Amino acid sequence: MRRILRDLGLTAALAMIACPQSALAQAGGNDAAVIAELRRQLEEMRQRLEQLEARAAARPVATPTPTRRATPRAAPTPPPAPPAATAQADARAAAAEARAAAAEARAARQALAAETAPIPGLDPPERMGDYYATEEALRPDLPGVAFRVPGTETQVRLYGFAKLTGYYDFGPRNQTDAPPPQTIPLIGSPADEQGGDFAMTARFSRFGIDTRTLTAWGTLETRIEGDFGGGAPNTTNAVFRLRQAWAELGDDSFRVLVGQANSLWNEGVFETLIDATNLNQSFVRQAQIRATGRLADNLTGMVSIEAPETTYTSVAGVFTPTTSMQGGASPAFNSVPDLLGRLTWRQNGLEFNLRGLLRQIEIRTAGTSASPSVSETAPAWGFAGMMRFPMRMLWEGFGPDELAVMAYYGDGIGRYFAGQTFGQDAVTNLGLPGVTSPSLDTIATYGATAAYRRFWAPTLRSNVAFSYSRNDFPSYALGFTPGSPAALALNREYQQVFANLIWSPFGEIRDGVFNAGWLDLGVEYLFTRRDVYGGSLATGAAGDGYAIANRILFAAIARF
Known about the structure:
InterPro entries: DcaP. The chain has 560 residues and is α+β, with helices and mostly antiparallel strands. It has helices at residues 2-26, 32-58, 83-116, 190-194, 418-421, 485-488, 536-539, and strands at 145-148, 154-169, 198-201, 206-215, 218-227, 241-250, 254-262, 285-296, 299-306, 312-314, 317-319, 332-333, 338-347, 350-364, 375-390, 402-411, 426-428, 440-442, 444-457, 460-472, 491-503, 508-510, 513-515, 519-532, 546-559. The strands form 3 sheets. The chain has a 16-stranded antiparallel beta barrel with strand order 2-4-5-6-7-8-9-13-14-15-16-19-20-21-24-25. A 4-stranded mixed beta sheet has the order 11-10-17-18. It is elongated.
């Protein structure tokens, strides 16, 4: 009897193990909780079998009695089912429950996948900064944390990066973590005598929210983005600032954008670690209405109407529409928006683009402290071209290396090159002695940049760049008071050199295209020289008429 019970118990145990595991295997290794429950039930049945065996062993063996004629009686009631049979039935029931649970879990997974699957026509979020034309050279390449809102046709993405930058100046003490070239202290100035110093900042860390929704008119994309660069340089009390806030509706053939976004004039040209607006780079973000259309294969056209801002320099200083003149209103005036256009052709990493702008510069002295009374306008225009050339087109051994060159020319386009002109568009002889009929003269500016991006390994790269820029001023600007803000703002020539080494431990190159991954660690060297119009005659005691800066910095960028 004990051997029979043990054999039946073993049979029940094997049935308990085989059936549920088979069901779970069919469900794809579904649920650890179900396995734990079956093991618990198996352990209870084993203990029950042991109790039955012990009870059977303790029962006394019956003594045979002499046979005698039995008295006829009613048939006995069938005995209850053996304990082993009950165990087998319990095991079969548990296995059936496990199979049902696995089926329910499988159905739930299928329903969730169907609910969150990409919708045809709703593209996944584009990687930030696929092209230098629309994002800074420092760009997060990851798609961010993206998910579809269940039950809707909307996709949401959270993206950004945390960034730490530290720097040391070998030359003049330049106390800003984002130094545009025109702020370099002059040789012979007090800042030059003090020498360089060291600082660190994390205020340019960035985050944004991007949504995409499929509509009857195409894909509606919205974006809100900001960082903490709105405060004073080198402060830990960083101030949040809005970078972008826009909505765009349409498809690849035609779409319209409204809101604050990168200007069509923007061009990063090459990859840097510093957070400044460098020489010949443009990182203007402003309110605009933009239309984008596909003109042909690989050819995109864009036009925009963008917010204007007149900036001019007179003997009294540098003025914008919001600058106060002696406690009153500013003569700088805006009356019409800026008009910009851009053509871009791309194929297999080769890129050509041409961009241009038209605008109006205006001053009105009525109602201000400026004298004499005058109302003047001046047309402004500019154009620029850029080529990005993948070196593998010459020889496959170059890998993903690339060469970038950019050149521009314009009159009155200073605000789009804030790095070299304090954003100024024009100068005027308003306020100079003996001037009774003031003139407004746009500043002619031109320059060029050449940069090379070298990949030493898929995770290690360098960028080397040289930039040159020149601004031409009317001769009466030499009459500005030496050492005054007006005279020091007139920079005639600039030269700038960049060299960096960036390690992206999770970077990879696929089909000639580089993706940096989520982490960048790098060092960078920056040399800048500026020469003031008029030299030491214009700077006076403020310095020797030129400035030279040597800065080395390191940065760590962690994206999400």
